[in-house]
Structures are given as structure tokens and as C-alpha cells.
Amino acid sequence: MRLLGKLTKRTRADKERSGATIAETAVVLPVFFVILFGFIEFGHVFMTIHALNSAARRAARLGVSETATTANVVTLATQVVSSAIPAARATILVKNGDAFEVTGMDASTVNYAALPDIELSTAERRQLFIVRVSVPYSDIAILGPRWLGGLTVYGQSVMRKE
User: Fold this and answer.
1) Domain total for the chain?
2) 52 and 78 in contact (C-beta within 8 Å)?
3) pTM for the whole structure
4) Is 42 helix (H, G, I), strand (E, B) or coil?
5) Is the separation of the CB atoms in 135 and 91 below 8 Å?
6) By the 8 A CB rule, do 159 and 60 touch?
7) How far is 52 from 157, CA to CA, in rounded Å?
8) CB–CB of 153/140 below 8 Å?
9) Mean pLDDT of the chain
10) Residue 69 has pLDDT above 70, yes or no
């Protein structure tokens, strides 16, 4: 008899506790999902940056050769970006990097779009050039552009003409 009474009391206590479990779940679950989706979104952003750096590096390596043209470099960068990030509207810049030859140059203050363009087929030997590939975050966002709306992610590579 004693055993039966203890089981009955425990069952009643569990039933009374079930309302608290639902309330705790309702509070914790949204916070958990925000953190989870935040990890997923930022992981996707870093994967995209890696893909853009890879596209810029591959295109710049093509641009190093003697027979390469700027159009060849842009075409290769476009192909690499479109294979990695199909929906992205990539902006590809191939710029003269002579501004970076100055000692003490602060790269964070440079407006890359304002740098002079370079035609790689006529570039001098050992001339510095930059390949920069950028994509608006709104084109690649998984959860929508609300998280990091005005952000533009980019990858770049700096090399010298051979």
C-alpha cells in the first residue's frame, strides 16, 4: 500500500510541473534558435568571404602571366564567383596598385574604386595590381538582409606582373 501511495503523489507532482516546463520552453527556445541561426548566418558570410578571396587569388594568378589581359582576369573571377555563389552580383575591380608602393600607406583608408584601372597586357614588369571581388550582403544572405543590411563582403589579392 505504501508504494502505491508514493507513486500517486509523484504522478500528481509531475502533472503540476508540466505547465512550468512548457513556459520555460517557450522562453528558452526562441533565444536558442536566434543563436543557432546567427551561427549559421555568420558561418555563411565567412564561407562567402573565403570564396571571394579564392576567386580574387585565382584571377590575380592568371593576371601575373605575360599574355593575360584584364578581360581574362575579370572573366575568370566571374566564373569562380558564379560557381561558388550563383545568385551573387559580383563587382570585380582590377586596379593599379602603385599607391601601395609608398611606405606607411594605410590600406584601411583607400577607396579601391577610385584607384586607376590597369590593362594587364600592357602593364610593366613587377608592377603591382589588385584584383578585388565584392558582393552585396543582401545577395547572399540566408535569413534576409535585415541582419547585416548595408554590408558588402569582399575578397582581394595583390600581385606583381611578371
Assistant:
1) 1
2) no
3) 0.79
4) helix
5) yes
6) yes
7) 10
8) yes
9) 85
10) yes
C-alpha cell at 120: 594587364
Which residue segment(s) compose the domain that 55 sits in?
A: 2-160
Residue with cell 534576409: 144
Residues 6 or more apart in contact with residue 155 via CB below 8 angstroms: 49, 50, 51, 52, 53, 54, 55, 56, 57, 132, 133, 134
pLDDT for residue 18:
64
Residues 6+ apart with CB under 8 A from 143: 37, 40, 41
**Is 133 within 8 Å of 156 (Cβ atoms)?**
yes
pLDDT single digits (tens) 5-20: 555 555 666 666 667 7
Provide the pLDDT for residue 20.
78
Q: How far apart are CA 110 and CA 1, in angstroms?
A: 84
Kindly provide the residue ranges of all beta strands, DSSP E only, lying in the chain, ordered along the sequence: 91-96, 128-136, 152-160
User: Quick one: pLDDT at residue 11?
Assistant: 64
Q: How far apart are CA 86 and CA 103, in angstroms?
A: 39
